[in-house]
Design a protein that fits this description.
145 residues; alpha+beta; Arc Repressor Mutant, subunit A; 3-stranded mixed beta sheet; 5 helices
Length: 145
């Protein structure tokens, strides 16, 4: 039996590779920014919201995606690039103030923060607000006139 690479990944993560899950996963990989449920609904209008949401939660639970809190009050998701057995997404995210998209800056690591005695870090979120390259090009073109 010839198993597609996505199906193999699902089997490794102990996820049953259904047609809908494979379709959702293909769409997710096409996003070049942290996407929300609404983005996925726009990309896959033939699937209902509850199916998409349950699948996102499944993927987060099996470490295919990680959730991003960018301060927008709307949960965002990114493809997880964790090492085997180490679910640790310690990179910076940038939210563009113009297009409102949030990007994973995988090469920018979150700086280590020393805490006073008695405190314990459970989760770190590091979001930078700024302008993405696409919007910056638009601004540069407009200012040239």
């Amino acid at each position: 039996m010839d198993v597609q690479p996505d199906a193999t990944l699902f089997l490794q993560k102990k996820i049953r590779p259904t047609a809908n899950r494979l379709l959702i996963w293909q769409k997710i990989q096409a996003f070049d920014y942290a996407f929300g449920l609404a983005d996925l609904q726009d990309a896959l209008p033939q699937l209902d919201k509850s199916t998409l949401f349950r699948t996102l939660m499944l993927f987060v639970g099996h470490q295919l995606l990680h959730a991003v809190d960018d301060g927008s009050n709307s949960q965002k998701f990114c493809v997880c690039h964790c090492f085997e057995g180490h679910h640790h997404e310690s990179h910076v995210h940038l939210t563009c103030r113009i297009c409102q998209k949030t990007y994973c800056l995988r090469m920018q690591q979150i700086p280590v923060v020393s805490l006073p005695e008695g405190f314990y870090v459970e989760e770190v979120s590091y979001v930078v607000k700024g302008v993405c390259p696409h919007c910056r090009k638009k601004i540069t073109k407009l200012s040239a006139y």
